[in-house]
Structure formats: structure tokens, C-alpha cells
Amino acid sequence: MGNGDQRKNEAYTTIRIQKKSGKKRINIDLRLKIDTGAQSDILPVNLYKKMFPEHMTQEDKVKEGILTPSDVILTAYGGTRIPQLGKTTITGTHKGKTIKCSFYVTILGLNTCKKLNTVSINAEVKAAPSRIDRDMPTKDRPPITNKEELISMYPECFDDTVGCFVKCRYHITVDPNIKPIVHPPRRVPLELKEKLETELDRMEKKEIFTKVTRPTDWVNSIVIKEKPNGTLRICLDPRDLNKALKREYHPIPTLEEITPSLAGSKLFSKLDASKGYWNIKIDKESSMLTTFNTPFGRYRFNRLPFGLKVSQDVFQRQIDETYQGCKGAIGIADDIQVHSKDETTHDFNLHEAMEKTRQAGIKLNADKCIIKAKECKFFGIYTLQGELNQTPLKWKPSETLKILKTGRNSGASWDSSTTWEPSYPSWPITLQISEN
After folding, report:
1. Which of 181, 223, 232, 421 could, after both became Cys, cross-link 240 (CB 3.0–4.6 A)?
2. pLDDT, tens digit, 9 for 90 and up, residues 257-270
3. For the chain, which domains are there?
């Protein structure tokens, strides 16, 4: 295999290292060449020096006590011994997740390591973009090449906390003619009781739930579901409560409305609002309506619950207000689509959307975000092709469409040009699958 073919088949990844320099935080991107056949990872001392100059003496030697001494003998594929100074563990982030990488710091330079084919991870250091201040003009903000850079520029949008629209505290309106209903606690399987108590405590600490000790007119039931990781998801069962709620009916954008703005776009990014409706706080009076029973007492929601028939309208209104006037951005439920015809325009549009996201208090799910793709599934229904060229978007035959059933024996008809399936439909629902 020639050198050109070998380079073509090399695999790379990047980890981000954040370190302090005085009062500032500096981000360093470590670009890694992956060798799955190697038994250890090495880092040439000249690269270590670039990353951590504060660890070096005036004689360009690593200070004592910095590296962990190691008796490990490193050899290249041809049997050549590689002298090493010790071991170091570097903490970084990759795709939004914190990882720890252990390296042997070698005396050999990078060029020598390459010639010996010894580097299981060849590294190069470059400056990574730091957090962008709110007052920086959008036109002056640097290009965004990948998800890791986006997270570095807007870290507060990806901090794994529950977001909160800063300008919204919603009041739920009820019909006074509807009589409140109190549900007794549902039985919980014995093997799930401890997990339920743990999840209730966790949600209370995160201020999503609050313990209720005073009398309330409404007491709802809950539905619990065990996740693949063994934890529980607690959902409100508001079947009776929904009958008493007054809905504000905020429209969701239709396919006909958004298609013209997408025509000709070649780059797409997707931002996913983490925890959806929980980004909306509700006032105390409304919170009391969401009181639910458990074997461990009553609790109430402090955030807008999934399943309420008002939730879709309230959340969509907040999304529309947040991204109103934001060029190249469309928000439907918790999906925010950013699109453009070229890369420069896309950077501007994405920065503008991210600044709106930050100012609104929305938190994003890093795992579900997509940056600068040529096609991108939007709202879970259709795929945006990279070059629309004024061609209307079409439903993919393989996609199944969920249709709400509005009552007993009365199925709702589907009109793709005027109707959207809500991301979090009202309760109760019956799902029907259409193959066409």
C-alpha cells in the first residue's frame, strides 16, 4: 500500500482540553490519529510542552512530580525501544462527554514517532474557540466547523441542566364548571418502588417536582416507564384534568409555509431543545392542578408537564417568539432547524440562532444536535435534501405517520399541507399507522 493510500485510510478524532491560564480558560483541541492495534497511547514531549508550558523548567525539561513514574517498556513495531519520561492523564471532552486519556510522554519527537510508526495517537495542538461573549457582534464571530466547537462557544447551552424560558411563567386556565377529580394512588410493582422513590427524590432536588402536604382539589395519577438504563420516567396521566383545561390554540407551521424558505438551501443544522416542555415554568396555582398521587405521598409539577392539552400550544408560542426574526431558523416543537445556501451565511445564521437560544434560557441536547449536514431529518417526519432547488419536499414512503384519533370511532383525516402531528400529543390518544 502506498503512502497516499495509507494516509487516506487513517482515522482521526478530536478531544477538547480546557485549562486555566491565570483568570482565563483556554481551550485546546487535540487531534488524534487512531491506531486500534496499539497497546498504549504516547504523546511526544514537544507536543506536551506546547500544551502545558507551565509544566516545563527553563531547561525545557518536565518538572519533577508532574508525571507519574512508569517502568513500562515501550517498543515500536520493528522492536525499537522508545524512551519515556512517565505517564500523564489528560481530561477532555469528546462529543459533549467528559473522558480521561492516559498517555506515556516520550522523548522522541513527533517526526521520529511517525517514521517508526509508533504513535497510536498522533496529536497536534491548535487553539480552540473559547466562549463567545453576548456582546460580540454576530458578523465578528468565528466559523463553526463541528459540534465540539459549537459547545465550546456556547457552553451554557449544553450544561446538562433543565432550561427555563426566562420571560415565561405560564398560568393554566381551567373551566370552573368542570368538577375536580381526585385519583387514589396506583399500585406500583414491588421491584419498582425503590426506583420510583429515588426518581421522585431526584426530581424534587432538581426542582421539577415539589412535595405537597396541603389539600388540593385535583389529584392526578402517574404513568411510570422503566428506561433501558434501569431508571424510571414519571409522566402525568391528565385524562380527567385535560377535560377541564382551556386551550389557547397556537398554530404550528405548515409544510406549505416553510417550504419556500428552505428551497435552495444546501447546509442544515439541527438544534434539539432538551426536556421540551420542562423549559416552561408554571405559577403555583397552576402547579397545584398537576398534583399527583404516589405510594410516597403527593407531588406537583413546577414545570409544564408532558401530556397536557395546552402544552403543545404554549411551547410552540415560546419557540416562535424566541426565533422570530432569526434568519434561516425554523422551530417546530423541540426541533430548531438552521439552513442556508452557503457556509458563510450558515455560520451567521447558526450564531444568531444560538444567541437567541442562550438569551431565552433554552438548554440543548448535544447528542441530538447536528451541525452543517447536507441533509437533515426535521421534526421526525421528513428529510431535507441538500439541494432543494425550488422542488417541494415530499414524504418518504418509508416514514410512518401518526394520526390522532379525536374520539371513539372518529379518526382524524391527514392533510400533509395543512396539518402537523404534535410532537407531544394530547392525552388520551390512539395511534394509527398509515402506509401511504
Report:
1. 181
2. 777 777 778 888 88
3. 12-116 (2.40.70), 138-390 (3.10.10.10)
